[in-house]
Amino acid sequence: MSGANRATNAMLAAAGFLRHGRGAGLQLVAVALGLAVLTGALLVHTLGVRFERDLARLVLEGRLEVLESARWNRPTTTRTS
Amino acid sequence: MTSRWSGLRTAYPRTLAGVVLGIALLLVTDLVLVYERLRYGRELARSSAAMVETERRRVAAIAASEENGLALAVELARREALGDTELHLAVDVQRSLLYLQREGARLREMRVRVGGPAAVGSPHAVVLAPPLGKRWVTHVVDASYPWIVPEWVYLDRGLPAPSDREIPEALGPLTVFLDGGAILYSLPAVGPLSDAGYVLPGSVRAEARDLDAIRENLTPGMAVYFH
Question: By percentage, how much of chain A surpasses pLDDT 90?
Fold first, then answer.
């Protein structure tokens, strides 16, 4: 079986799953997608609170130089020098 | 209704199992995230309570001004895993654990008891609470150190305070004094602290064998992080 045929069969199987049982499969996938979005939002929110906690610790411990150093090492920082 | 799902299970057993497994994994992840969120919130509240107003404003200002806070949060989390490059102690007050660690590597984990906050002394009571943030070891003494037991310790314990309160070994075989007045000690055999159910307010009591095991590493100037 060629790659194109396999892909076509997989798409047909997925479509069949979604339509099956008056859309039961579709409902299940919708629940999964909704949960994935919720998980993503929860992850971002939790990281935000953790960031504030880390900041509070650095301020309390007088180690704000760690923050400055972290700014230069985060993945998205663009260095111009 | 039941036939819809049983039909789906019959027609697509593996796909259905995969989707259900995915949903279960997402639910477990959500539960873990909610637990962590609550824990971070509690720790943040404790830190905020220990700050003065200007420090609180500083934290809020930095958090609000960060354009890419998420990436910075990830980098800080990574650094926390790396930790201090010097050998240091860390006290997790909530979990009652003391760590000897360097660069995030935990060399020893020790169970401790942290003395809760208490208002001591009279007529002007002072609240002694567990430290928060960074402290330093000022000096380390052995059993021969003649500690003059403060009068408030006897009062706090409901014991009559003797006139001579200089008691050798009143803090156990090895004691670590920190700046700010907190003490890291172990259960002594004599004196008012010899009750296993009592921990000196604002201080930390460890097992004598644990302190003895890390004795060589305890030096003045060593950092102790309370969080």
Answer: 19
Mean pLDDT of A21-50: 88
Nearest Cα neighbor of B81 from A5, A40, A54 is A54
DSSP state of B67: T
Q: Shortest Cα distance from B89 to chain A (angstroms)?
A: 14
Question: What's the pTM?
Answer: 0.58
CA-to-CA distance for B178 and B189, rounded, in angstroms? 22
A45 close to B (CB below 8 A): yes
Mean pLDDT in chain B? 86
For residue A43, which residues of chain B lie inside 8 Å, CB to CB? 33
Q: What residue ranges do the domains of chain B occupy?
A: 2-76, 86-226
Looking at this protein, which amino acid is placed at residue A19?
R
Strands B88-92 and B223-226: parallel
CATH code of the region B86-226 = 2.40.440.10
Chain B residues closer than 8 Å to A53 by CB:
40, 43-44, 47
Residues 60-119 of B with CB under 8 A from A: 62-63, 66, 68-77, 79-80
Chain B residues closer than 8 Å to A31 by CB: 23
| Residue segments in chain B with a per-residue pLDDT below the cut of 50 | none
pLDDT at A74: 62
pLDDT at A71 over 90: no
Task: Report d(CA A52, CA A42) in Å as an integer.
Answer: 15
Q: Which of A44, A53, A73 sits opposite B43 (nearest CB)?
A: A53
The pLDDT score that the predictor gives to residue B127 is 80
Give a three-class secondary structure readout of A12-37.
HHHHHHHHHHHHHHHHHHHHHHHHHH
